[in-house]
Please model this.
Amino acid sequence: MKKFLILLFFLLSISSNTLGFIRDSEIENIIKEIVGPIADAAEQDKNNLKIFLINDKQLNAFVTPGQKIFIFSGLIINSKNMNALEGVIAHELGHITGRHHIKIYDQLKKSRAITLVGVILGGAAAIASGDSTAAAAIAGGAATAGQRSLLSFSRTQEGAADQAGFSFLKKSGKSLCGIISFLELLESLQGYKENAYTQSHPLTRERIRDAKYAAKDENCENINNNKLNKIKPIEFGINERYKFIQAKLIGFNDPENTIKSIKNNSNFSEDHINYALAIANYKLFNYKKGNNLINKLIKKYPSYPYFYELKAQMLRENGFLKESLKNYLFVNKLLPGDSLIQIELAHTLLNTEKKDNINKAIKILEKAQIKEIENNKLWYLLSVAYGKNSEIGRSRYASAYSSYLKGDDEMAINFINRAKKITKRNTSEWSKLIELEKKINFKKK
Model:
């Protein structure tokens, strides 16, 4: 599998069972805030765009049919600032407006070369498809003339997406300096040995040249020399909140290394560092230290909801349910209508084992279901809640849906059949069972 990291896109759907996806209210809301102005500039309805965060260290992003944008956590962690991510998102929106993902998908279908998405994607496709042949072709450079023709087509589209992206950045008042520094980083990682025919995008040096030309009216010389005052309290603008999600991902993904080296990160203020350290200590079962660090941040910034969310999570997982519930209720007040927060609140209510709280959890989960119909944790919690409430038919349906979302169709059918035995025909519950059964059987065809 290729070891160097590239900016690219691909066009096959990816199941959440193949790659690890991150669901996090803080990260998702900040990314949506970043995407909004650029989507407006691209004349795309930001409410129709679906953003997915993949837990993988690659510097990568891509789009698929259905206006889905996939962003790798490594891209967020390793970008010097938010502007680099803005540049990548603008590029991906260039693919969407140009309908490149659909064109390439059709081309691949015609050529019966679906597995060659591995060649286009590099490492990500081999992970997504499990196709070792594609990975071997990447490593060995065994592309045929027909394959090179397909890749050449995608290179052309990559260049068009770049130009569209530059236009969207300018129209939305964003700088092009971030995408330049990002492409320079990619160039330093790739080297110059690639065969042009096996690239799914223009050579990085060409892309840098084009980006610099587009940014000729900007002064990008000192883009990476923005030193922070590590002591002064930060202002909660989008740029600083972006650094908080970088710190969060670092703390969760590599807690041991975070403890050792995060203080050397010149891109972070003391507050960003403390956030990462709070998470890292919590992940390494040092609850007391993690709790002390998050309490410091709460004292300094008493209206930032996600510090309370982290505290609530730490409290729940360490058995302090009463305090955890208090914090989740407060976060829910600060972020009314946030479905992911509602799911965590319901989780905590269920853990108390109190009858009233079980009923409250069911109501909260049924409300959150409107936005989070494909959230596996929601369905799992519903199955538990209905079971505790002696609603066994509904519990089995929720278990069936949870199994369906995990890709375990056999288990889903098993739960459906068990639910049918205790569910009256011609009821809404019966109709839901039949509808889910049809979905599963259709997928098998």
Observations:
- DSSP finds 22 helices and four strands in the chain.
